[in-house]
Amino acid sequence: HNFATCWRIQISRSNGKMREKSLTMDTLNPQVKAVEYAVRGPIVTKAGDIERGLQQGQKHPFTEVIKANIGDSHAMGQKPITFLRQVVALCSFPELLDSSIFPDDAKQRARRILQGCGGQSLGSYSASQGVDCIRQDIAVYIEQRDKGVPADWDNIYLTTGASDGIVSILKMLVSGQGRSRSGVMIPIPQYPLYSAAISEMEAVQINYYLDEDNCWALDINELHRAYQAAKEHCHPRVICIINPGNPTGQVQSKKCIEEVLHFAYEENLFVMSDEVYQDNVYSPDCQFHSFKKVLYEMGPEYFNTVELASFHSTSKGYSGECGFRGGYMEVLNLDLEVKAQLVKLLSVRLCPPVSGQAAMDVIVNPPLPHEPSYLQFHKEKSAVLGALAEKAQMTEQILNTVPGIKCNPVQGAMYAFPRIFIPPRAVEEAMCVSLLLLEETGICLVPGSGFGQREGTYHFRMTILPTTEKLKVLLEKLRDFHIKFLKEYASLEEPKR
Amino acid sequence: HNFATCWRIQISRSNGKMREKSLTMDTLNPQVKAVEYAVRGPIVTKAGDIERGLQQGQKHPFTEVIKANIGDSHAMGQKPITFLRQVVALCSFPELLDSSIFPDDAKQRARRILQGCGGQSLGSYSASQGVDCIRQDIAVYIEQRDKGVPADWDNIYLTTGASDGIVSILKMLVSGQGRSRSGVMIPIPQYPLYSAAISEMEAVQINYYLDEDNCWALDINELHRAYQAAKEHCHPRVICIINPGNPTGQVQSKKCIEEVLHFAYEENLFVMSDEVYQDNVYSPDCQFHSFKKVLYEMGPEYFNTVELASFHSTSKGYSGECGFRGGYMEVLNLDLEVKAQLVKLLSVRLCPPVSGQAAMDVIVNPPLPHEPSYLQFHKEKSAVLGALAEKAQMTEQILNTVPGIKCNPVQGAMYAFPRIFIPPRAVEEAMCVSLLLLEETGICLVPGSGFGQREGTYHFRMTILPTTEKLKVLLEKLRDFHIKFLKEYASLEEPKR
């Protein structure tokens, strides 16, 4: 690097005309500038810095950074599902199909996937919509999940994680200028992919607030309010729902879903249901209902008309395979010409990663009771989901023992989104609390502002993914931190709770 | 499906108000509508239909569709590089690290990659820019490739194939309205990802024509012409170069690259060099020169100022691993604040597929001469590149024996882009020739219009990827077809050649 430094001096000495940068903050695409994505924002960058510092021997009041900022199961110690990885390894290196160390059901899955790939290789592009036989397996899975509601594999599209599908569908729906610009209804709090995509596409974000006092339930009156208000300045075209909720962890009731679908029917809205946490339901009183199944049960007038895109992923559930970037969407009642346009749009990116498609296939087509891998698979799956249920409950319980923190039940998904009550004098510091927490305890959370919250309220999102022991430590540290924080302000005023 | 049909009848009978579709061709995002992507366009759809028909016993004048429309090596029979797949399999199923069937160098690579992954799992999200140690390996590779020109791994970003990186960089550069709207200079003929992305972002496409009479060389005077003309109606901000060329197969000379970089320096343009075919150079007179190395050799005033993004991929070269969607970009001289914005933009999509990152790592970090896998790796790599060189030459030679076809040398990449001379009376049918060819011979090519061509000229793109035997058959069928086609018009006029 000495050479480079020397060069730089040379230039600054030359006093000649310096070439200006062509790309600066002034000339950057303003839509890119407008994008916000807190899940990987400044707090997380800081956490990475501290982590590197610890490795290099820097002293901190803790020995480890606990990253509870992102739903990254394997990074938090969850082990991969053996069967899934066996199938992916077999697909990656088919010579292993002759090896006796792999069970027959894994080999059968791998052979089927490879037969669907050009040249029987995971290295070929798939069709833009994904590998045919994987789309077929997904359709069968959906029919079984939804107790016989028909699923057509022609409506299934493999995606690069769920995010990719969500962005593709939104992209189709954004048009118009000024008051006829497309409006996108999203829950608040929301997963910031939605607000980021809306910013990037210059669509209009329409907030509907979830009801924190009612376990973050979706309130149909609030939907109407948000819709009517938005109609004054944009053209509401699509409603997004996240069920189970991220960051809010609620599981929607069938009645609530019916109301949403009826509303979408009446107002001619496109429905996008983000169902990536469909396998993550912990509360015994709750059950996952797919938007599709509820739509079906509302009768043909609904099922044959309402445009519905639903999304799933390899990243969550019990497999937690985020790195594979696998996912799919099912799109119902899409206009046939528009469907061709969607395929065209997807084809520009060629295809979703084929190993992610293979991972998705295993998730929708797991070992059956009579197959050799069933017992181990079932054991691993139950262990993951059991531990998550336990941690969901523990998180809620411990957080609710802390004065100034109130946490709704974590009915599903992978997060708690507790409200923190802060003395008025401390409000200005509220944005810094997460940073302070990180620096004092090594715990990395995301401030509620990254997901949206009602004005004057403060929250944070934390995952329930650390191991039970680590999560307990985290929650206790969090409690102590918050109590200490409140004490510093206690002389001035009692917390509002 | 009976039930569904029955429902539809019920609705049509009810005569009630039918819910209209919210998303139709009239309400679709017009930027999506404007996108074109011929590599997977209607000809390819038709080819798929015919293929399925053949499988179901339909009769055609051929027994097999040969898809020469897309650079999909494995689908055309190329075998994966063993070492690469061993590493990916080991990463996917680390229990194999204890198995004696894998060589030590593959295990060492896999261990290193896994150590860079959260929880040592391919299933964790990586950092948005990619796994640190893979970025480091890429920087070392670039330094070696460029004979010591320094590479900083902080400038390396893993991507989901090269396409993803290209779209991300373009997205940052698009801004302004009307005459200040960003203009993007692209070669014609081009790879249609560029025109598709430009349409989608409503940027202004600035065509500079490659010189067909000079082996598709880039002509600096043509660059100036295109730039000056564009300045009247937009703000030219970026120049894209594809070297070796797709679809044109030329390899740019060092002098030409110098001229382009000087031009970009003078006109303050951001440079995007698509170098995904850097390992695919066949002509003994040609050599791949990276834009970065040439920039370095032009001196510090250039190397420390010109903003340059260069792209590479797992999909091409000798590995042909398209399905893994691996790739990287190196971005030089990016403004520091803009760099943070780029990372933010990438973070919304979380990370590139980690198995694709692993594949990329093997390509930049292959077995060394003293390692156990070296001999086999070297043999496989040479066999692939040797066969491609042979097929490149054969394609040019056979095509140039056909009256009415003129093909430049395929110096590099994976395609021939021959010009076809068509009698004036046949011009109206020119667009249908590819379809006719497909229906009569089973050969699937992409018409030149999908890549852009000078008005009044006609071309097609074909890959050189079929096996040597199959490619020979393809070329002979093509010859016979074209001769027959010309004969039908011969009575009217001699071909213009």
Automatic annotation (TrEMBL), chains A, B:
Which CDD domains does the annotation name?
Answer: AAT_like
Give the family, as the similarity comment puts it. Belongs to the class-I pyridoxal-phosphate-dependent aminotransferase family. Alanine aminotransferase subfamily.
Q: Which lineage do the record's taxonomy fields give for this organism?
A: Eukaryota, Metazoa, Chordata, Craniata, Vertebrata
Name the UniProt record assigns to this protein: alanine transaminase
InterPro entries cross-referenced by the UniProt entry:
ALAT1/2-like, Aminotransferase_I/II_large, PyrdxlP-dep_Trfase, PyrdxlP-dep_Trfase_major, PyrdxlP-dep_Trfase_small
Q: Does the keyword Cell membrane apply?
A: no
Stretches assigned to the Aminotransferase class I/classII large domain = 105-478
Q: Which PANTHER family match?
A: ALANINE AMINOTRANSFERASE, ALANINE AMINOTRANSFERASE 2
